[in-house]
Amino acid sequence: MVTYAELETGTYYLVKKEAGDDIMLVKPLMETGTCVLLLSDNGEEEFTFWQEKKTSIHQIIDELTEEEADEYESLFEEEEEEEDEF
User: Fold this and answer.
1) How far apart are CA 23 and CA 6, in angstroms?
2) pLDDT digits over 36-79, tens only?
3) If 0-12 CB within 10 Å is exposed, 13-18 middle and 19+ buried, where does residue 4 land?
């Protein structure tokens, strides 16, 4: 069984928390002895939340490569630049 403790800080993952859930993008930002702070994007908004390391994840679907992570981040940099222009 996969848990949040197995996710590496600074790496993006596509996960399903529960069997029927939608796919969610998560990136561990930092960790304590028992918890991990995650940045998440559900397709509509970006948010952070704490999760216990021992909590199970139904499925890790994919791990983004560095190139894919850079491409993902550049999508939002372009949007921010466009918003600043107005």
Assistant:
1) 18
2) 999 997 667 889 999 999 999 999 999 999 899 889 888 877 55
3) buried
How far is residue 49 CA from its own chain's centroid?
10
The tokens for 78 are 């372009």
Structure tokens at 60: 């890790």
Chain centroid, CA 85 distance in Å: 28
Q: Which of 37, 13, 36 is nearest to 24 (CA)?
A: 13
Task: Please compute Rg for the chain using Cα positions.
Answer: 14
Task: Please state whether the predicted TM-score (pTM) of the whole model is above 0.85.
Answer: no
